[in-house]
Structure formats: C-alpha cells, structure tokens
Amino acid sequence: MTGNASHGDKATIDQWSDLKRAARNAEWNVPEGRLGDIVRQLRCRGEAARRRASWILALLVFVIFIGLLFYLGLPFWQQFADGRKQTLTQHISDIETRLGGLDRDRETLKTDLSNFLHERPEQLRAPDGNGLNDPLQVGEAIYISSFDYGGVWRAAQDGASFEELKEPNGMGLNAPVQIGEAIYITGFDHGGVWRAAQDGEPFEELRAPDGNGLNGPVQIGEAIYITGQFSGGIWRAAQDGASFEELKEPNGMGLNAPVQIGEAIYITGFDHGGVWRAAQDGEPFEELKEPDGTHLYPPVQAGEAIYIAGPFSSGVWRSARDGAPFEELKGAPDVSGFNAPVQFGEAIYITDYDGGGIWRATQDGTSLEELLVIDGDNVNNPVQIGEAIYITGQFNGGVWRLAHDSTSFDELRAPDGNGLNNPVQIGEAIYITEQFGSAVWRLAQESTSPEKLLVADGNGFYDPVQIGEAVYITGQLGGVWRAKQDGAPFVELLVPDGVEFNAPVQAKATIYFMGSNHGGVWKLPSSLPERVMALESDAKMRDFFDTLQLDLKNRDTIKQMDAELRRIEIERAGLHKVRSSTQDRRDRFDELPWAVLAKADYAMSFDQFLEKCRAPNADSETLTKTCLETWQSNQEATESDWWETLSTQVPPGILLLFLLGTLAALYRYNMRLAGFHHSRADILELHSAGFVKPHNMDDLSKLAAALAADNVSFGKMQVGFGTGSIGIERAGSPSN
Description:
InterPro entries: 6-blade_b-propeller_TolB-like. The protein contains twelve helices and 40 strands.
C-alpha cells in the first residue's frame, strides 16, 4: 500500500500545484498522515475511472449518433442529394436543349445565307487583267485573254481555278479561236500570232504574220487566213496552220477579215478602201475597180447578189452575182455614211448612222428606195425577228416595225426611252433596253405595246442575253439582273458596286461575267452556297463572314445575319460557361463519401426508355420489340442486385452493434471501478473520524459492503429502507 501510494504521489499528486492540492484536500476532507495519502490515492483513481467513463459515454453517444445518421439521416440526405442531382441534371438538359436550339438557329442562318449567296457570282482569283475577252471553251478547258494589257489564262475542267500562261505575252490580244484541234491567239494592238497544237499544249509564237493589229484567224476550206487591221497585209496557212505565208495582194491599209461567198474569197479595206477577190482558196487575189469608196464594210450576199457599203461615204455597190462587176446603186441619199447592209430574204436593208433613215434595194436591185426617215435622230441597224423588221432610235428612242405584208414602218407606242439598243428575241418575246436610260421593255408576240419590266436609276443597259431559260442584263454603270425565265421579274444579282460587266457568256455549265472596266471574272453557279452549308461551327461561320468582300459586308441583309451570328456566339459562350459550372456542381455529389454507400436509383419507365431508344424511327415494330427486350433485361439486372444492397447495408450495422456492446461494457466497468475506489476512500475517512471502532474488522467489512457501488442494483430493491438504515447506523456508531 505504501509503494502504491508513493507511486501515486509521484505520478499524479506531486504534479499538482499547492493551490490545487489544497482545494482537493478540502473537497475530499482528507485526514493527515499516511491514512490521508491512501485516501487521496483512492480518490485519484476513482476520478480517473470516472473520466474514462465520461469519454466512453461520449464515444458511445457518438456511435449511436452515427448509427442513427447512417440508417435514418443518410436515406433522407440521399433523397435530397438525388433530388438536387436530378435538378442539376435537368438544368444541364435544359442547357443542352438550348444549345441544340442555337445549332438549329445556326442551320437556319446557314440556309438563309446560302440562299442569299445564290444570287452572288463568285469572283475568281484569276484572271486579274483589265479588259477581258469572252471565254473560249476547248474540250474541258476554258481560255480567257485580255484585250487591254494582254495575258492568257486557262482553267481545266470545272473552270473554278485559272492559271496564267507564260505565252502569249503580247499587249492587247484578241479572243482565242479554235480551228481544228489548234488554238490561235492574235494581237490586235502590237500584232503577233500564237498557236497551241491542242488543248493543254504550250503556245508558241509564229514567225509570221508580223503585222501590227491583226484580225482573228478565219478558216476557209483547209486554209487559215489572217489580215492586218492597221498595217494591212494578209497571210495564209495551209492545213495545220503552223506556218503562215504572206500574200502579195491585198496590199491595202487596214483590211477587214476575209469573207467567203460561194467558192470565192472577198477582202475589203475599211481604212483606205479597196476590194480584192480570189476565185477560190489558194488562188491569187485581184483588186476590183469598184467599189472605190475610201472605207468599206465586208460584203453581204442577198440571193445571188453581193452588196458593199461604205461607213464614211454615201455609196452602195452591188454585184449581180459572184464574179460580176460591182455597180453603184442609184438613188443613194446624200448622207455622211451608211451602216453595214443587212439582208432579209431576197432584199437588202441599209441605214445611215447619222441621218435617221432606212432604205431598201428595189426588186431589180439597181436602186434604193426610201422606207423611213426619222428627223433629228440616228437609227440602229434593222433587226429581223420572225417575219417583221424592227428599227430603234439610237439617241432619241422610238421603235418602228415593218410587217411582212406591209410596205411602210409603223411606230410602236413604246418604248419611249432615250437611246435604245437593238431589239433581241428571247423565246416568243422581244426585249429592248436603253443605252442611256434605265428601263427594259418586253414586247409579247404580235403585240404593239411593250411592257416596262425593270428600272435602274441612272444606269444604261447592254443587250439582254438568254442562257438556258434565264435572261441576263448587264448595266453600263455596273450591276447584273436576272430573270429566271422569259416574262419573270428581274432580280439584281449581288455583284460589287462600280464594276461594269460585259454580257455574260456560258462555257459548259458555268456562266462567266467579265469586268469591262476593272477586269476580274465572276462565275455562276457560285461555290459560296456549298461552302456555307459545309460550315460546322460558330467559329467557322465567323471566319467565313470575315472573308466576305466589303461590298457584301455592307449590305443590310449580311449585316443582319452577322448580328444574328454574333447573338448565337455570345449566348453559346454564356451557356457553355453555365453548363460547365452546373456540371461541376453535379459531379461533386458523386464525389461525396456516402455516394459509395448508396446506389442511386435511376429507373426509367418503359415509355421514357422507348422514346429514347426508338428516336425518329417510331413506326418500326422490329425496333420497338428490340427496345422492349433491352428494357426488360435492364430491369432484371437491376432486380438481381439485391445482394449488393445487403452487402453494403448489413456490415455497417454489425460493426455499430459491436461498438455499442463494447463501449457499453467499458462504460459500466469504469463507472463501477470509480465507485469502488470512492467507496473505499469513504470507509477510510469514516475510520479516521472514529465512526468505526479500531480493530473491529467485522464492522469495517459491513460498512464496506454497505458503501460498495457494485452492490447497487438497477432492478427493484428487495430490502426495506429502515433495515438498511439501522445496519448503517450500527456499523457507523463511534467507539468509546
């Protein structure tokens, strides 16, 4: 006992401060001496056991709380978490739905933009030369030359990509001409002739002709003829056209292209006049005595007769037949000059370009008779459409028609515009455009009142052109209009402002528009609509808008589409940001510790599963049966997982019961141990106070038994209150 007391003093009591030791002695009423040391040691051990019991009790309460939380709180929390997850999942689904809506908005925008760009010819990167001739189709290839600064471009097959050729490199080229398999290009400015043996072969410059300003080559029989526009001269190449030989005659300055009439070949001089004739190909040319005009048009044949007129003289000459001498017609008016004669049937019609009159050769062909004179205006050449002849006013407008059974022209009520082009027949109708005005008229067959179709303020028009069923009109100050068919309204195509175009030309399935003032080539159909429909993201759409030409970007429709795309981009960026944050919040529920202990039930009804499974194929019975079998197998797999629930729920319960039993036993043990030590300390205090007789072990034993905590029963007491009290009083009576 002494050793234990000493050990207790060293372990616990001696570590107390004097103030704490005094407080404990007063609280416990510890006697002095060795007996007090023993009482103090018992009290300390009792307090230690009581503290352990308090900690065990707290741990026991905590385990009970954990058990209640696991089996009662966790299901409630799981329901909350599942509901929150479902809410966030629905939010994500709503965002995905809206993103899908933005995709549909982008597809609608793509369709609208594609439809809009259908009316926009696509500009090719080349040719980029100013002043381009009409394209020539050779097999699958297309050739374009420049009449201004020179240059030749070739496109293979689709005509979407032109490559500039090294040759010809001359300034001012005529349009390429195909003769046989060879392709010829002549220079009308500085001369030169280039030849490619066939499509795809390089062009080689020929040694001759070497004259300045050449007309395009003309094939007559097996031979090829080329004449000089400015310096004169004529060259002939037999068969393959690889080697030209200059002929001695004609030697006049400025020759027209040769014309074959019958077997004979005629050449006239438009500069200093002169007429030359070769009886047939290969024969030498002989100069005729008549006509003697200084400037002559190429000859025109009507029946067997041949007519030649002069642009700057007032003469008209006629040869009764090939080889017969030319004689000047009688009755020719005194005018500044004539337009080229025009043949209709057996008759010849001729107009003067400065006086507004039209004449016709008489039946015997020896003289001219006046049909119409328009005071104060010039007239265009007559045009035959059907069985009628039409004449338009060159400056002051007006349209006159000569029916086949009439001897005089009748003026139509309209058009009344200033400066009219020649009428053009398209289908069954006749189109007339203004040179200096802004209107287009259409005259139906057998009608005398043309209908005004189009007005473009401040513009003048070139002659309309029919390509397929569509009718195209180009403006002298820029602009292109198209009617999808005869009689349909004209719609302006989306061409750059300020670019003047020649009349469109079709090569294969492509329509080309040549820039007459600034150069450039545009084509229809355009690849822009297909490129638009191939765009798969907002970023690619934005890149496409950024690459549009400035004239397109400035159009109101494109500005509206650009604003719509910007709205889609901004809304999509915001939705992606919200979706990312919502997905992170949704994923955090799967990362919680209790997510491993609980299996969320996302059972789907058969109707919901079927709707997702069949998708658009709602009428497929086979697919419906397959979906049903899949859903049933999923349900069976879910029901067969009951043991997984058992394996996750039972072990924690067993562990909790084990902890509860162990902690309860430890708690009772420590509480009894604390009561044991305190009861022995109480006996010693009673002994020191004289309540127990010295050396009376029987009373001491009874008192210890009465004060012992292990004798306290949790059940109903069997002993009366009085008996116990008497025993205690007897045991505790002080000795004398």
